[in-house]
Design a protein that fits this description.
By secondary structure, the protein is an alpha/beta fold. Helices cover 29% and strands 13% of the residues.
Length: 155
């Protein structure tokens, strides 16, 4: 019996992931700098086939706040609530983002990588892609980028 259509019921530790999202997260862990900072759809956990695999835990990288997990941390640590809500709000139209929207995230939050779904976004350089997910680098903006402190939240 299949527990969820389009997904594998068990992902064994140390085995090659069968889930396309986990494949992308594994590529991130092995092929991006530890200090890389990511943006994903703030509701990525409910995307088809994602199966609630947390990016931070599998990729071992930092990311902007997500809609689901970071709300819980904000309830425990109220000082995180406004920044987390702002990060989610700034990506509310994620699925219609264009290259300039990702540049805006880079300028505001110093995001240098994004994970998007196929078919991707014209103008982004994506060194990894599978049938569902792409990992893309946001190239350096010309001009000065304001200094911001990256907020790290636990997985």
């Amino acid at each position: 019996q299949v527990l969820a259509e389009g997904t594998h019921d068990i992902e064994w530790p140390g085995a090659t992931p069968q889930n396309v999202w986990l494949q992308a997260f594994t590529w991130v862990r092995h092929n991006t700098p530890r200090e890389a900072f990511f943006a994903l759809d703030p509701r990525y956990l409910e995307r088809p086939g994602e199966d609630s695999h947390g990016f931070r835990a599998f990729a071992e990288r930092s990311m902007l706040a997500d809609y689901f997990k970071d709300r819980g941390q904000s309830a425990i640590f109220p000082d995180l609530a406004f920044p987390a809500n702002q990060e989610v709000h700034d990506r509310q139209d994620w699925r219609s983002f264009r290259a300039e929207d990702f540049q805006r995230l880079r300028q505001r939050y110093r995001v240098d990588w994004v994970i998007v779904e196929s078919p991707g976004v014209p103008g982004l350089r994506c060194p990894y892609a599978n049938e569902r997910v792409l990992v893309c680098r946001i190239d350096q903006l010309s001009g000065r980028v304001p200094e911001l402190t990256r907020r790290k939240m636990s997985p």
